[in-house]
Amino acid sequence: MDTSLQYALDQDQKDVLHAFRDKFHIPKTSSGQDIIYLCGNSLGLMPKSTSNYVNQELEDWKNLGVEGHFHAKNSWMPYHEFLTDNMAHIVGAKPEEVVVMNSLTANLHFLMVSFYRPTPKRYKILFDYSPFPSDRYAIESQIRFHGFDPQVGMIELAPDAGSEIVSMTHIHNILEQQGDDIALILIGGVNYYTGQAYDIKTITSMGHAKGCVVGFDLAHATGNLLLRLHDDGPDFAAWCSYKYLNSGPGSLSGCFIHERHHQADLPRFAGWWGNDKKTRFLMRDQFVPIPTAEGWQLSNPPILSMAAIKASLDLFAEAGMDRLRKKSEQLTAYLEFLVSQNGSSALTIITPSDPNQRGCQLSLQMTNPDKRLHEYLTVHGIIADWREPDVIRVAPVPLYSSFEDVWRFNTILADGLNQI
Q1: Is residue 413 a contact partner of residue 342, using CB atoms and an 8 Å limit?
Q2: pLDDT (tens digit, 9 = 90+) per residue, 366-381?
Q3: HSE (CB half, 13 Å, CA atoms) of 272?
Q4: How far apart are CA 218 and CA 223, in angstroms?
Q5: So what's the architecture of 78-317 in CATH?
């Protein structure tokens, strides 16, 4: 690597995925220039094909009314099934282990109905360091709902001394000390604040060895990391689709439930869309769950949202997660190299340098927090995000970010550091 613009342009010429950038709408500055968009870890950009996918369903609704459930170009009745194979491939699961439904926090609650089964002895939940607030609220409310004290029942991971990173040694030690009291481990696949990626397989194995149920919030991992949920063996997982999966603001969530639980007599909140498909419209009193992850569904799905998801998943299938991950590692390493070459003591990269412990996000922590730096980036055509109290999160997403984007970001960053 080197710090020249020509190096970035050469890398873009060599990039076999570079053409995918043209399949997305890139926001523009007031002068008509492409924004340097490095915020796909918060909301992915819109594929140009999304309008066609959604408009198809609008046309079928307009022309067919309720008959669209059976006679639309993409029949609405089984529409969620059109997403299953591609989504399962992205998370490394069997199709029968995956379903798209509801929103992320709702799915975490519904999954905890089945998988958080506390007893007076074993009721604690081990969760991520500095989690996204919604996860904390969900965990706290579940513990309280079951009659336990969250002050005692919540065990939050902590970073190693002098670091923002949670080591596997720390997780192992907690499980050795308190594993017999822990009913559920529920952590993020990638920590939203630091960008650290956790070893799902090892954590699952350690948790199961202590008799804990293990689940993951993969909001920042799905479409970002190479996941192998079936082989790694967590009991469940959930993720949103509007970050790296580019499905639009507030879009639906995906769920994984390992096949070993499909036939188990687990408690669940039931709804008619989880009922046996052969008898669903016989309107019987008895609920007979579909013997797959689909059995956790409640309501018939919002087709317009699913159409947007389908548009993006088809792009993922075309690009391939292996190729996306390879480019992601190259882009993020290049970003790390450039930021490090600035030599500024005002910023520290708190995301692990090991590619196996991160996705595409780098978290830049300010030594003396000053939000004016983020504001400088914004004024100069960059969309990244600021996380209180002191972090700028930067995510070069391989589907649409370029090496030139990364180079230009760092040039503006270096200028901003000199200005504040």
Answers
A1: yes
A2: 999 999 999 999 999 9
A3: 10
A4: 9
A5: 3-Layer(aba) Sandwich (3.40)
Measured from the Cβ of residue 24, the count of other Cβ atoms closer than 10 Å reads: 23
Write out pLDDT tens, residues 228-238. 999 999 999 99
User: CA 286 to CA 157: how far, in whole Å?
Assistant: 42
Helix then strand then coil, % of the chain, to nearest 5: 45, 15, 40
Report the alpha-carbon distance of residue 244 to residue 223 in Å, rounded.
5
CA-closest candidate to residue 212, choices 291, 148, 117: 117
How many whole angstroms separate alpha carbon 42 and alpha carbon 44? 7
The verdict on domain 5-48+320-419 having CATH code 3.90.1150.10 is: yes
Predicted confidence (pLDDT) per residue in 390-407, tens digit: 999 999 999 999 999 999
Name the amino acid, one letter, at 91: V
Phi-psi region of 32 (alpha: psi -120 to 50; beta: other; left: phi over 0): left
- Residue ranges, comma separated, of all CATH 3.90.1150.10 domains in the chain are 5-48+320-419
- Pairwise CA distance, residues 327 & 17, whole Å: 8
Q: Are 233 and 208 in contact (CB under 8 A)?
A: yes
Please indicate, yes or no, whether the overall pTM of this predicted structure exceeds 0.85: yes
Cβ–Cβ < 8 Å for 274, 294: yes
Buried b / exposed e along 393-411 (16+ C-beta atoms within 10 A):
bbbbbbbbbbbebbbbbbe
Structure tokens at 99: 């379903």
Helices 104-115, 133-145: inter-axial angle, 10-degree rounding: 30
d(C-alpha 322, C-alpha 20), whole Å: 15
Question: DSSP characters for 57-99?
Answer: HHHHHHHHGGGHHHHSSS-STTTTHHHHHHHHHHHT--GGGEE
Q: Alpha-carbon distance 416 to 344, whole Å?
A: 11
Cite the DSSP H helix spans in 192-320.
Answer: 200-209, 229-232, 303-319
Instruction: In whole angstroms, give the CA distance from residue 224 to residue 216.
Output: 15
- Residue 112 class from Cβ within 10 Å (0-12 exposed, 13-18 middle, 19+ buried)? buried
What are the b/e assignments for 351-372, b being 16+ CB within 10 Å?
A: bbeeeebbbbbbbbbbeeeeee
Residues 6 or more apart in contact with residue 24 via CB below 8 angstroms: 45, 46, 47, 48, 246, 399, 400
Q: Where in the chain is the domain with CATH 3.40.640.10?
A: 78-317
